[in-house]
Amino acid sequence: MSTNLLEGTLPELSKESEKAGSVEESLPVAQSGFVSSISKDEPVVTRRELWSYYLYYNGDNGVGPNGYAMTLFQSLAFAAGFDPVKGPGSSCSAADASGQCVLPWSGGTKSVSSVVLIANGVSFAVMTLMFTTIGSAADYGTFGRWLLFVITVICWAAQFGTISLTAPSRWPLGMALYMIGFISYGATLVFYAAAFPRLARNTAHARALRAKYESGEISKEEYDLEESMEKNRISNIST
To answer: What are the CA-CA distances from residue 22 to residues 15, 25, 30 (Å)?
Structure first.
């Protein structure tokens, strides 16, 4: 009985394999491997646009007011806090301080370290929510560039706003500016990085390579190598 089953299924399997082979033979050579698609509507990247990308990359590196915002916020919070052992009005930095430092918080008190951790935790929660909802907009259409522009302006405003932190009593403002700056900075990295593939595949050199590949002047292996070199060149200059 098992022999009859095998004899019945073997012809069917051979027919399926022949059919699959004929489909593969009918496919064009260009479709045998993956090549990133280019929309004909995408403009060629100009030298000015390329250098704008380089400058943005160097400017958006986290070094600046954003890098010191948490230190400034924590310093103001420590200066505004008091020693819970000695009570309100005492200084956390006094010579005889207990080493503890708390701040008024929701009708009670909370240590400065806990307040800093809350700021970081809320910031990461907001970024997680943001990147899992509107984050995909960075990869589709041209809407991502407007989000990048708006988020960049918010990030700059939050960083320059730290010049108003001139007294310990302004630690809540310092906390807010730190969180806004941290969240918006993380968002700029996401939307900025998403622009790289489109930028790299639309340089004059990359478009010329694609034209040669489509006309059959170069093989897919040569095209992949040259495209990779073009991406590496842009990445190396920007970093």
So the answer is: 11, 5, 17
Query: Which residues, 6 or more positions from 170, have their beta carbon under 8 angstroms from its beta carbon?
Result: 76, 164
Structure tokens at 127: 């970024």
DSSP 103: E
Euclidean distance between CA atoms 209 and 206, whole angstroms: 5
172 close to 180: Cβ distance less than 8 angstroms: no
Tens of pLDDT along 41-74?
A: 678 888 898 898 888 888 777 667 777 888 999 9
Q: How long, in residues, is the chain?
A: 239
- What tokens were used for 93? 């930095």
Collapse the DSSP code of 175 into the 3-class scheme (helix H, G, I; strand E, B; otherwise coil) and give the result. helix
Spell out the residues 6+ positions from residue 130 whose beta carbon is closer than 8 angstroms to its own. Answer: 183, 187
Instruction: Show the CA angle centred on residue 185, arms to residues 183 and 190, nearest 5°.
Output: 95
Note whether 30 and 214 are within 8 A (CB): yes
Q: Are 221 and 40 in contact (CB under 8 A)?
A: no
Place of tokens 């992949």: 224
- Are 223 and 212 contacting, i.e. CB atoms less than 8 angstroms apart? yes
Enter the pTM of the model: 0.73
Question: Are 39 and 202 a contacting pair, CB within 8 Å?
Answer: no
Dig out the tokens for 92 from the structure: 């956390």
